[in-house]
UniProtKB/TrEMBL annotation:
SUPFAM superfamilies: PLP-dependent transferases. This is Aspartate aminotransferase family protein. GO terms for biological process: carboxylic acid metabolic process. InterPro entries: PyrdxlP-dep_de-COase, PyrdxlP-dep_Trfase, PyrdxlP-dep_Trfase_major, PyrdxlP-dep_Trfase_small. Its cofactor is pyridoxal 5'-phosphate. The lineage of its organism: Bacteria, Pseudomonadati, Myxococcota, Myxococcia, Myxococcales. Gene3D superfamilies: Aspartate Aminotransferase, domain 1 (3.90.1150.10), Type I PLP-dependent aspartate aminotransferase-like (Major domain) (3.40.640.10). Pfam families: Pyridoxal_deC (PF00282).
Length: 522
């Protein structure tokens, strides 16, 4: 007796199929489907957004639990509905959820993170890219997407000033680009010691260490953990008064390194997340070359300054890097993610190459039917290059450069205004597009910390502004960390007057949180 026969009772009844089951317009990739996408945005979603209650500030006022509960209620009942309501109603509903309960990055008072309001052209192109659902791993999953990414990578290589052996790949974020940069550095260092890290792992590598400034992004530490080096592999290098890595300190630390250690990489930051400070790249590159150590430049934030003629000189020396992280979803006005890892020598990607029977068989590759599988940790990979390419074609280098300059000028305006306010203390000047400061009450530092934290939450809860927060050692290394406030200015349509209004809102919130200014206080 056959097994299927015994289990026959459990099988679904054999119902005769009906064809076709769905109109072709439900699938975005077809001609009708693209028209349906476009109609949905201008039709049902458009009318829903027209009647939606747009918050007056950058976000809906309310305590977090209330905002989240209201958003969930607006989404509908619990669980997946048994029957659908149709695309138009679903999109209209989601549109309202996002508008009424979400975040408005294009509001002049949304200045919390390196999270820009994305350009309209990029969002439209991203929808097109989604509709194609092309993937970058193989030729037969998206030839045009491969061509677009190669075009973009070549352009970025030229902008960075890397040579003709350079290459690159898009990744899902700066954290991942840093991880990949470190992975390639690790495997290159292992190879120099005759170890194939791909096969053997890194346990055979004596005492791997990675040097970066004490202000480097935390993703460097996490990458070390993920790569099996342990966070203890990170050797933080002291910074100077302008928050840049000290090349002398770096050189001394490298000199003191014994043979029981393997220096895998020096990671210079071009644009620290809080301060926008740029490590001295030419000096660091010279030290890296002297010691034969891989130089990775984390330019996740700062790379976009290369679009600006005025600010590009700050990144001089980036062309000396072995690998570079850059995020165009920061100074590039892309919807996330649009991160790139560039390498000065395409051969570095050998560490990632794989031959897979169902993806890139050798004879296909030899015949030119090859994709970008060998440059990535991903297999299926979104065509994120499409939105960036559309942006660069639409606005050109100069268009983006103007946006960078405007945001830098806004940061300098904020800096001047903060300096002039007796209740505010400027903590770090505007290097790129951020300004770090602190609200002063004259009370003890711990109490001031509390008030700075409170005033930021108050601005959020009232829906008036969304500003950043960080912790800074105000009195140099070893001194206690103090709560500071931060403006990250990435909206080039903001006016100086709107920025003044933001500073006024900070002052008002500070006074409301500070007993000194409260009714009845002396
Ligand atoms: C933002 C940032 C990162 C991380 O990038 P994600 O895209 O958020 O993963 C890494 N390094 C620096 C300096 C950054 O500012």
């Amino acid at each position: 007796m056959r097994v299927e026969a015994e289990e026959g009772k459990q099988q679904a009844p054999d119902v005769a199929p009906r064809w076709p089951r769905r109109p072709s317009s439900v699938l975005a990739g077809s001609r009708e489907g693209l028209a349906a996408v476009s109609a949905a945005l201008t039709g049902a979603v458009g009318s829903a957004l027209a009647i939606a209650r747009w918050p007056t500030g950058p976000l809906r006022a309310g305590a977090p639990a209330d905002v989240l509960a209201a958003a969930k209620a607006a989404l509908g009942g619990d669980g997946i509905p048994e029957e659908g309501m149709g695309s138009e109603a679903a999109l209209a509903r989601l549109g309202r959820v996002l508008v009424e309960h979400g975040l408005h990055l294009s509001h002049a008072h949304a200045v919390a993170h390196l999270q820009p309001p994305p350009l309209a052209v990029a969002v439209a192109a991203d929808a097109l890219a989604s509709a194609s659902n092309a993937s970058l791993d193989t030729y037969d999953s998206g030839p045009s997407a491969i061509a677009v990414e190669r075009w973009l990578i070549a352009g970025l290589i030229e902008l960075a000033g890397l040579g003709s052996s350079a290459d690159g790949v898009l990744t899902p974020g700066g954290s991942l680009s840093n991880l990949m940069g470190l992975l390639l550095a690790r495997d290159a260092a292992a190879l120099r010691r005759g170890i194939d890290a791909r096969k053997e792992g890194v346990s055979a590598l004596p005492g791997p260490v990675v040097f970066c400034s004490e202000l480097a992004h935390f993703s460097v530490h996490r990458a070390c953990a993920a790569l099996g080096l342990g966070e203890g592999a990170v050797r933080p290098v002291p910074t100077d008064s302008r928050r840049r890595m000290s090349p002398d300190a770096l050189a001394a630390m490298l000199r003191e390194l014994g043979p029981e250690h393997t220096p895998l990489a020096i990671i210079a930051t071009a644009g620290t997340t809080d301060f926008g400070s740029v490590d001295p790249l030419p000096q660091i590159a010279a030290i890296a070359a002297e010691h034969g150590v891989w130089l990775h430049v984390d330019a996740a934030y700062g790379f976009g300054t290369l679009f600006s003629e005025r600010l590009a000189p700050r990144l001089a020396g980036i062309e000396l890097a072995d690998s570079i992280t850059l995020d165009l979803h920061k100074l590039g006005w892309q919807p996330a993610a649009a991160s790139v890892l560039l390498v000065s020598d395409a051969k570095a990607f050998t560490a990632l190459e794989r031959q897979v029977a169902y993806l890139n068989p050798e004879d296909d590759s030899e015949a030119g039917y090859d994709g970008l599988l060998g440059r990535s940790l991903q297999t299926t990979r979104r065509p994120d290059a499409v939105k960036v390419a559309a942006t660069l074609l639409a606005h050109g280098r100069r268009g983006l450069g103007d946006m960078v300059d405007t945001c830098h000028d806004l940061a300098r305006h904020a800096e001047a205004r903060i300096k002039a306010e007796p209740e505010l203390e400027l903590v770090a000047p505007a290097e790129l597009t951020t300004v770090v400061f602190r609200y002063r009450t004259g009370e003890d530092p711990a109490r001031e910390d509390e008030i700075n934290g409170q005033l930021r939450r108050r601005l959020m809860e009232t829906g008036v502004a969304l500003i950043g927060r960080t912790a800074v050692r105000l009195d140099g290394p070893g001194s206690p960390e103090r709560v500071c406030l931060k403006f990250t200015l990435l909206n080039p349509t903001t006016t100086p007057e709107e920025l003044d209004a933001l500073v006024n809102a900070v002052l008002a919130a500070g006074r409301a949180c500070s007993p000194r200014y409260q009714k009845g206080a002396a």
